[in-house]
Design brief:
Helices cover 22% and strands 30% of the residues. The strands form 10 sheets. Strands 20, 21, 25, 26, 27, 28, 31, 32, 33 and 34 form a 10-stranded mixed β-sheet that branches. Strands 10, 12, 15, 17, 18, 23 and 24 form a 7-stranded mixed β-sheet that branches. A 7-stranded antiparallel β-sheet has the order 35-42-43-44-50-46-47. Strand 38 and strand 39 form a beta hairpin. It binds beta-D-glucopyranose. Beta-D-glucopyranose binds next to helix 6.
Amino acid sequence: MKSPSFRVGRLRCDYLDQPLGLDERVPRLSWQMESKRRGARQTAYRILVASSPELLAQGQGDRWDSGLVESDQSNQIDYAGRPLDSRALCYWQVSVTDELGSVAVSAPTRWTMGLLNRSDWTAEWIAADPAALERDAWAKVPTLKQPGTPGWFRKEFTVDGEVRQATLYVSARGLVEVSLGGQRISPDALVPEWTDYHRRIHYRTYDVSERVQTGANAIGAVLGDGWWSGFVGWQETRGRYGDLTNSLMVQLEVELTDGRLLTIGSDRSWRMDIGPIQTSDFMRGEAYDARREQAGWNRPGFDDRHWLPARVVAAPKALLVAQRSAAVGVESMLEPVSMTKLGPKQFIFDLGQNITGWVHLQAKAKAGTTVTIRHGERLNPDGTLYTSNLRTATSTDTYVFKGEGTEVWEPRFTFHGFQYVELVGLTEAAAGGAVLGCAAGSICPPAGTFNCSHAGVNRLWLNGLWSQRDNFLSVPTDCPQRDERLGWTGDAQVFLRTATYNRDVAGFFTKWMIDVEDAQTPAGIFPDVAPRVKEDKNFMGLDDLGGAAGWADAGIIVPWTLWRVYGDRRMMARHWPAMTKWLNYLERTNPDGIRRRKLGNNYGDWLCIPTDTTFRTHSPMKCLLATAYWADDAAKMERMARELGKKADERRFRAMFLRVRRAFQKTYVLDNGRLSVETQTAYLLALGMNLLPEALRSAAAERLVELIRDAGWHLSTGFIGVSQLNPILTQVGRADLAYRLLLEDTYPSWLYPVKHGATTIWERWDGWTAKDGFYDVWMNSFNHYSLGSVGEWLFRHVAGIELDPDAPGFNRFVLKPYPGKGLSRAQATFQSSQGEISSSWRLSGDTFSWEVVVPPNSSALISIPTTGKAPVTEGGRPLRRSPGLRSFGREEGWAVCRAGPGTYKFRSTWKHPVR
Ligand code: BGC
């Protein structure tokens, strides 16, 4: 056989690279062909899954041998082998045949199964002995107003044989950091992640084979508050889950080479004490006294006679589930760009970037020296730290030195949103070099890059990426700094497409959609925030966080988008009953087809211009918006039903869409194509959600343009309208205007904050203005991604990497860039399920040069911008003579063809339209 001209790589199991401890009984396997050859396609595959690497090496798939399957599918193939039990080790590889008949075999990889049954857990849930707090005047006894003191737990054990393999499972109500033999078992932070703890609690699985030794061993665990018992949301009180006791469960399973199995589980033989962390809380920060460290506490041989026995507490009733998305951790460390002295022992560090995370402190000082670290996103005009927009989050860490050489410290169970750090308590010599910023979040794999000839636009894209990194922390939060940090559904849905271009967020949203469904009410109402937080009537009268239009509809939009972008059918199928329940609810509550009842907190086009932050009030605009979302939900459901083969549902939702659309037209659409409610967003929704009679679309589009003109050629959209603005303008033939809005840098615009030094997306257009300074502190975050949803347009229309309307998952996709005034080049890459798509264009004079990469095993419908009749070439040849291209056509302004895998270089003549 000839050696293949391709490789097989990027093997993933349920979106993850070598996941451990899955509890999905039918995992889905994916891979990619890697080749630069034109036309490289998969014609067949064979998957082998074995219970040991040896069997796999011998070509024996004792768990599953798919046999040779003639198919080009390489994305999300259901495992169809022998049923998988708890702890199953699954070593797998795939061999792929290409269209030339050559075969390439992937490197072997693996996944493992977790503990699938309750009875697999023999460990017990343990908690601190309250006596430890009482005997220690220093410790803070938790109260509703006072964060708790983390507890430190330890257990020694002996291994009397040679270790073949060791696996550690850990869960907590609270946050836990585990170490073995004195070292953390993983860089994961804030474990386990946030879910509705009444319903499900995550556990994590770690391979610790290298850490467990023959002879004496010790496990250490530090247990803090986090989402379970700390302050979450507006800081009224802690303990959203009704229980202030943190607890943990650890189960370590050690397999010896002689076949014996040792299990070390948490129980009352574990010992605990109060350690150096006096308090730790997301909103309030962490207080650490290094003088209270007990050297060797997590290593064998430590004298723990003064420690107390751990207390066994009842196991939770909630489901214990495996984590299925990338863990939270530190993704990068930033060096400050400046240090400014404010006073004796008072310094401000500027990281040059607004991040989420914490400070890595490294300094020398005398024992007992206290350093106070405060965090802020901006500075006051006098150069001091601006913190009033954090509301009640004090976001302050303190560290007390033990006085032993250079001390290094990072807080464990808190995070802050900040660009500036104020350090108080160190001399100038000690403070210099003392601070690094740790940028933390859910580490979703990179997916896209964007770059163009305009520095401001590049920064805008980067700001969106940073706001995504900063806010995707276990759940998609609204902001990382003030006392809120909740999984707001509206923000998440509006930014989702942008998010998918920036990062691989498939696993992240698979997890979060479960949170969304967990938060659905029995009546079918999807939430405004997920995980649901205990309703807090004290907060601005918000007592029912559910059902708001544009927010709750995320329950439909998330599965829809994951299907469209990643080809994920399982998610639609799993959440189908919940999605149906939501539409039943809308129909039940709004029988006349206009969504005007039960609008919950009814935020409307939140933060549009003129600023509208009213909620719980009704207005025609809000009903229009709600009705449009309902119609669009129904249209999406119709399409998804078709995909899932649910014929009756398809008919039902088609009829629902038409009925709501009719009601919309009757209520809001006038004969001349105008709407009875005139805002930019109203027109964007009507056009983007297909709610207008065909004959009136162009009149409505013209009116939209007039409204933009009347606003002095500025946008006025809020959270909801903003994501539609440039895509719809482009769709209706006004890409030139989309560019104009993109490049506008006077208030209000995307580039206004960029011009004023923003390094993340601001919550509001007027977060800070030259005229008025900072907006009112009650709601003014500088790190909210919603208004950054224009990132989607940069990829879809500027670079032109777009979904095929009829095919999910980028197996088939569209390449169609819209050049525009102000950019002389643009370039983007995107990691699709089939591999990297790339588009890079340049306009010099009237010559448009464009290089694209179509990954193996996919195809693209390509539209090359061209004006007039000048010839369009690829690789210097007429299109028709270029190998790899077919199905040629012309449309007004475009030369069209279909391309198979490969790299293509197009050239055409293109002139800016004259208006
Ligand atoms: C949050 C949002 C959210 C909104 C609801 C705010 O407090 O920060 O981003 O979507 O409330 O209108």
